[in-house]
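Deliverable D5.2: sample structural annotation.
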Amino acid sequence: RSGSLSSAGGRPARDYRWLSHQLLSAASRADGIREFVRDCLRNLGAFTACDRLLLWVRQDAHGGAGWAFDHGSGALAYLGTQPMATEPPESFDGGSAVESRLQLPLRFGSEEGGWLVLESREREFFTVTKRELYADIALTLGAAVAYQRVQAAQHERVKELSCLYQ
């Protein structure tokens, strides 16, 4: 499944469906936020062929946590927590090697779930067609983030009730 969007015609619809399925499946597993982020960023990296992906996920009303994924090495780095803002945090700066960058908000309904930032060393990597496709992917990822948050809260509530019952 690795490679980049090939042309204006793009990847076959089945690859987009495959990616959507992977993102939503990752949200349904109760492995925790780190595993969810890792799975999502690995699948997104394979689909987009971007050099670096950054994900900022809202954790509560005040702030969120960030992760960076290097597609070449497969390394996932935790960037820490920061207050939520209308733009991705400054720590998402990719440095001088980045020639193209695309910032996409993660939303589900009226809920803002964070940011997805895609970076490439290739100049003009994000064509109009890619930007439109990646915006659609960000919508799916926004739904996955919201669902993962609900799953985690439900898991915590079950643990609380189990302790109370015992």
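Annotation notes: The first helix runs from residue 13 to 28. Residues 57 and 114 are 5 Å apart (CA to CA).
The annotation will be released with the project's public dataset once the embargo ends.
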